[in-house]
Design goal:
Radius of gyration: 17 Å
């Protein structure tokens, strides 16, 4: 079985919140947000909602790559690398969503996690990943960072939230990456296709989700967004620093030893 489809239990949970907003974090389950509740309404597909696979619930970090790397293979710094394939013929969503994260800080309104990236067949470069979560009365802010260790490395990072199916999605991207016969993003960019989507877009505008009588605005300093709205039960809206297979498209960020790539993702209830 593909390892990305293996069941993953939440494990011990951290709770942060303020006012009407509460956030549940599962450090041992890939450092993911297990659930978000605002004014009594749940917003994420939970582990117990019939989709216990590690790839299919909560909101998890994607790093040090986001989306698929074609056949798990890429070149960097004059060498060729082959990563383990964890979903079909490809390596998907990095290593962070499958690993236990360390809790570095936990308070009433915020939490901080870290993960030492492997330096083995799963990811040959090492490095360090960090997450921060902060809640105000009407907003959740999440921050991700990857710092290279002794080795330079290519990095793409992002978030993969499984939102419970919204009544309405407001999304106005500028351009899109077409998908080839293997379903992987490629170039050149094209006009956005009609939904339903399993596509990567170039987008600089806020995204809105409407459900349960609430409106949620999503913003990020990422300019790439993957939207996956084909399932009947959920819609994924995923800000990323680059497209899927970014390293093979020449669009990954290249970090020298000690350099850091960071991004933020904010959820505001209107």
């Amino acid at each position: 079985m593909d390892s990305a489809l293996a069941p993953m239990a939440p494990g011990e949970l951290l709770h942060i919140g303020r006012g009407s907003l509460s956030v549940v974090i599962a450090p041992s389950a890939g450092g993911r947000v297990a659930q978000i509740r605002y004014a009594g309404a749940e917003w994420l597909v939970g582990h117990d909602d019939g989709h216990p696979e590690m790839i299919a619930w909560g909101s998890y970090p994607m790093l040090p790559w986001a989306g698929r790397i074609r056949h798990g293979r890429f070149g960097f710094d004059g060498q060729r690398f082959a990563l383990p394939l964890n979903l079909g013929a490809h390596a998907i969503h990095g290593v962070g969503f499958a690993a236990p994260w360390q809790v570095d800080a936990h308070g009433t309104h915020e939490a901080a996690l870290s993960l030492a990236l492997p330096e083995d067949a799963r990811w040959p470069f090492g490095g360090m990943a960090r997450q921060r979560f902060h809640v105000s009365e009407h907003a959740l802010r999440m921050e991700l960072a990857v710092t290279a260790g002794a080795h330079g490395m290519p990095v793409t990072l992002g978030w993969h939230p499984w939102f419970l199916k919204p009544d309405r999605l407001v999304f106005t991207p500028a351009r899109a990456y077409p998908r080839d016969d293997e379903g992987i993003a490629c170039l050149p960019l094209v006009d956005p296709p009609l939904p339903p989507w399993d596509d990567c877009f170039v987008n600089a505008q806020p995204v809105e989700l409407h459900r349960a009588g609430q409106a949620l605005r999503l913003t990020s300093n990422c300019d790439h967004w993957v939207v996956y709205d084909e399932p009947a039960h959920a819609t994924c809206v995923e800000p990323q620093t680059g497209p899927p297979d970014a390293v093979n498209l020449g669009l990954a960020h290249y970090l020298a030893p000690g350099e850091t790539l960071s991004a933020w993702f904010q959820l505001d209830w209107l």
